[in-house]
Structures are given as structure tokens and as C-alpha cells.
Design brief:
By secondary structure, this protein is an all-alpha fold. About 75% of the residues lie in helices and about 0% in strands. It has one domain: Four Helix Bundle (Hemerythrin (Met), subunit A) (Up-down Bundle), CATH 1.20.120.
């Protein structure tokens, strides 16, 4: 079974519906709710084992909701926007929590935030909101790597055997994931500018046509 694009039916076009209450959207909400629970487990209860479990569940819902959406034709316009936002908020909130807990250094959070801050600024400038761009394959792989590496890093804090192995494996996943994060960010940067300029040209042509028609 393929992991990227799993559940897609061969020859079937991807149609996004206006339905709100779908199983994939419910799973995305669960991912949102997992963030405050993780924060409390790490900073409040200091239960790193349960925190790692919450991260694993959150990561699995990211794959499951996409599979269900494609397999059972439950792709929605809301989910198309909400799913990447849930991924980004989860990764950043988890990173902030781990920095406060002393699990990772501040540079890890900065490596996540800088590309997103640039893309957010561009999106607000050109579109005053979400640019509505499809998630790239690199972006999906990047998210998967970060979602695997983070719980491994949390597990490395537990008094269990082979914590060194978990630590090294975690940073392999996180290192590749961060590299993919910047590559995906650069690709989105170009796509936003290209779409934004195209939108501006289209608006200018319509204005010129309206001016010509009024004379």
C-alpha cells in the first residue's frame, strides 16, 4: 500500500465537496484537541510516555483522514484548508512546548517558524488569507517525517532501554524533515508569488475591459 495519496481510486477525479461534517474533518478536529492535551502532559504532568502516545495518535490521524477522504469520496473544501492548518499548528505548538521543557533548542522552533512566517506574510499580501494551494508531495513527506521524529524524541526522555537509539533516530527524521520543510517552503513561496501575480494581472485585465466598455 502506498502511503502518499493512499486511498485514491485510479481514474477517479478528486472532487472537493462543501460538506462540513465528515469523518476526515472529525479526525482533524481530534488532532486540534490533541495539542492542549500534549502541552499539559509535558509541562504539567511531565508524563512523557503518554505525551509520546498522544503524538503518535495525532500523527496517525493525519494519514487516516486523508485515506478515508480519498477512499470514500469525503474530500471537502473545509478539510482542504483545515488539514494543513492543523498540521502546522500541531508542529509549532509541540515545538514550543518542547523548547519550554528543554527537550529541543530554540533553533529548532526557529527553523519551523521562519518559512511559515514568510509564507503567511505573502499569503496575506496577495490573497488576504489562505492561498488555496494543493499540498505538495514534499510537503506531505516533510510532515510525516516530523510527526515520526517528534514522538521518538519525547521517548528518548524516558528512563527506558535504548534511549540513545531513539534520540539518534529522532534527529535523523527531524533533520531530513526540516530540510524538506525549507524545500517545500521555497516551492510554496514561488507558487504563491506566481498565483498572486496571475491574480493581479487578471484583475487588471478585467478593470481595463470595464473601462473600455464604459466609454
Amino acid at each position: 500500500m502506498k502511503f502518499i495519496g493512499a486511498g485514491a481510486q485510479p481514474g477517479q477525479p478528486s472532487i472537493h465537496h462543501d460538506t462540513v461534517f465528515t469523518i476526515p474533518n472529525l479526525l482533524t478536529v481530534v488532532r486540534f484537541l490533541g495539542v492542549p492535551l500534549f502541552i499539559w502532559l509535558v509541562l504539567g504532568a511531565q508524563e512523557y510516555g503518554y505525551a509520546a502516545l498522544v503524538l503518535a495518535i495525532m500523527g496517525s490521524t493525519d494519514w487516516v483522514d486523508g485515506y478515508v477522504a480519498r477512499r470514500f469520496d469525503q474530500m471537502s473544501n473545509l478539510g482542504r484548508v483545515m488539514d494543513p492548518i492543523a498540521d502546522r499548528m500541531s508542529l509549532i505548538a509541540v515545538a514550543v512546548t518542547l523548547v519550554i521543557a528543554g527537550v529541543v533548542e530554540w533553533w529548532y522552533l526557529a527553523a519551523l517558524l521562519v518559512p511559515d512566517a514568510i509564507l503567511l506574510t505573502l499569503s496575506l499580501y496577495y490573497f488576504h488569507g489562505h492561498p488555496d494551494l494543493p499540498v505538495s508531495r514534499i510537503g506531505k513527506i516533510r510532515t510525516a517525517l516530523l510527526l515520526v521524529g517528534t514522538p521518538l524524541l519525547v521517548l528518548a526522555r524516558l528512563p527506558i532501554p535504548a534511549t540513545e537509539v531513539y534520540f539518534v533516530a529522532a534527529w535523523i527524521f527531524l533533520g531530513i524533515g526540516l530540510a524538506g520543510h525549507w524545500i517545500a517552503g521555497y516551492n510554496y513561496f514561488r507558487a504563491i508569488i506566481r498565483k498572486g501575480k496571475g491574480k493581479g494581472k487578471g484583475k487588471e485585465l478585467r478593470n481595463n475591459a470595464d473601462d473600455g466598455g464604459s466609454r
